[in-house]
Design a protein that fits this description.
heterodimer, A: about 160 residues, four-stranded antiparallel beta sheet, about 40% helix, globular, B: alpha+beta
């Protein structure tokens, strides 16, 4: 990994600091306003990722899209999350992720929802498909799931 | 598509029917645009996210500062008004009005429009496929 933005510290910062940003904004603005803002920010970021990969508007097999996004967002990319699988059921997408920012360092049973990660995957799917989706988290590693799973339904 | 078309039609009529109303948008509580008639200079996606966050923040202020249930978030600038109102659990309405608008009339029109949006949302099982 090359350091492009910060010569001494490199391009990655601690997950503890990132989490503190989220929790701090929640304290000030409330969970809902924070979630809206982070989902919106995530959507923009996801779109940027897809455009950076040259995949916007491309008709790709799901396996190819999965592997490219997993690479860009995972250990060899920006390390936002681990993306294990994308399923398509008609027009609905389910995306299986883990090691998301929001779930890291949380106690088991916590009600915390993923927001930035949910939005980032949403923005990526929207940029690739050209459709708009509404996303929700349907499973959490904090509540007995194997993954933080997001479901995206097209807006009719 | 018919559902969103109905909302878009409602908004078109709302904006066209009053010279003081300069734009309007219906957005989801999580900040996604459902329908919008906005000036070209405004980004629909950003406006939707901003509106949802603002209404949510207004509701939090209402709760934390013991102001009760929030009816609307009202932004008054020297060029006009921006008003956010809830339309049930599924949507909220942003209305942009000129500084010349009569507030009482404006609130009445917004109330009537909110009811129409709620009826449209309610009459359609879901806007999401």
């Amino acid at each position: 990994m090359s350091a492009e933005l910060r010569p001494e510290l490199g391009d990655f910062c601690s997950i503890v600091c990132m989490k503190a940003v989220i929790v701090g904004i929640e304290e000030a603005l409330g969970e809902k306003a924070t979630a809206i803002s982070l989902i919106a920010a995530g959507r923009v970021r996801g779109k940027q990722v897809v455009e950076g990969l040259g995949l916007a508007g491309q008709s790709l097999p799901l396996e190819d899209l999965t592997s490219k996004l997993a690479f860009a967002l995972g250990k060899d990319g920006t390390r936002l999350l681990v993306l294990d699988k994308i399923e398509q059921d008609g027009e609905v997408y389910r995306v299986y992720t883990k090691e998301t920012i929001c779930s890291s360092g949380e106690a088991l049973g916590s009600e915390r929802q993923c927001t930035f990660a949910l939005g980032a995957v949403q923005g990526a799917l929207e940029a690739v498909s050209g459709k708009r989706f509404r996303g929700k988290q349907i499973e959490s590693v904090l509540r007995g799931g194997t993954h933080d799973t997001f479901e995206y339904t097209p807006i009719a | 598509m018919a559902n969103l078309s109905s909302l878009q039609g409602l908004l078109q009529n709302f904006v066209v029917s009053s010279p003081d109303i300069q734009g309007a948008a219906v957005v989801t509580p999580d900040g996604l645009p459902l329908a919008a008639v906005l000036p070209n200079s405004m980004d629909e996606e950003r406006t939707a996210a901003m509106s949802a966050a603002m209404l949510s923040l207004g509701e939090r202020i209402g709760r934390e500062l013991a102001r009760g249930t929030v009816e609307r978030v009202f932004v008054q600038g020297d060029m006009g008004y921006g008003i956010l109102t809830s339309c049930g659990d599924e949507a909220m309405l942003l209305t942009l009005a000129s500084k010349d608008a009569k507030q009482g009339m404006l609130f009445l029109e917004i109330k009537q429009m909110s009811e129409k949006v709620m009826a449209t949302m309610g009459s359609n099982a879901s806007l999401f496929a």
